[in-house]
Amino acid sequence: MLIELLKEWNVYKEPIEPNAINPVELEAIHDSKYIDAIEQVSSGAVLNGIDIFGLGNSDNPISLGMAEGARYQVGGTVLGAKLLIENKAKKVLQLGGGFHHAHHNLASGFCLYNDLSMAITEMVNHGWHVAYLDIDVHHGDGVQEMFYSNGNVMTISIHESGEYLFPGKGWLHELGQGSGRSLKLNIPLEPFSEGDSYFEVLEKVVKPALSWFKPDALVVQAGADAHFADPLADNLLTTHDYEKIFRQIIDYADKSCNGKVLFTLGGGYSSTATPRIWALLYLILNNLEMPEYLPENWKNHWEQILGKTIPNTLHDKLPAYEIIPRRDEILKINKDVIRRLMDSVSQYWI
What we know:
Blueprint: H1 2-8, H2 32-42, H3 66-85, E1 91-94, H4 115-125, E2 130-134, H5 141-146, E3 153-160, E4 184-189, H6 195-213, E5 217-221, H7 239-256, E6 261-264, H8 274-285, H9 296-306, H10 327-349
Parallel strand pairs: 1-6, 2-3, 2-5, 3-4, 5-6
Helix pairs in contact: 3-4, 6-7, 6-10, 7-8
């Protein structure tokens, strides 16, 4: 939907085609037995005991060719990292990737291979300090786990609280260990959190964290599932909020790491909202104008396929939803989360 929309607007650039990562290269972050199991069942083999690897369930079902598809996604994100390392680009958008729930030896949350961690590892092996920012509504647990003790990687995850949402992680006390202590930052927000809470996190957590850490590059998982129309979560961002968030992140990258930033996509389960959100990101990164209206051909085509009504405009019409009754209380709770997190890490940052 996104690519066809960009083509209708005549702003689509042909992407740089990546190579699929080699299974052996994945051993930099994944267990060899885990990789072997994925590659085998992806080719049609029937294996016993694959449930220990998180395979064969409703979140991570078996399908032919899935391993190759996942390795292409990893290849795309790693290519983005190499473009930054080789100074061939300052800002890269991977039109895919963002599989942040994949663990060392466990598939989880629709994720097989962790493309983000492979790209970060590529940068770290080059001698870089890397900041990872995850705005997907779900906690970026796989990436955090892989770098929990690593002093060269800061991870920041802004997500709906694990008390209410998968994967049930991402608490304030998860600050890292060893040389990674104080470099793993989690902001678990209340359900029905709005843009104001996100902007406060950006200003009071992300901005000072990047200013202190001074990374060589920023890697961003730009999940679109914190939108108010998303069926799998409860937060209430609008497209207007997303535009402001994307612009703020790019500004932070310009100021903290010489503009070097790699964006991937991620979660996003509203077929009417997600392509519009990622179109905003594409337009912003390419310094293009924001069309007010969606193309009629595109809209009619996809409404027939989806059986849903798609908005006429790129941006949500405001007010986008009814005012929630606990609005002030939610904002207050989120402010307290921010305060407690910064109290916890500030002693390490002095």
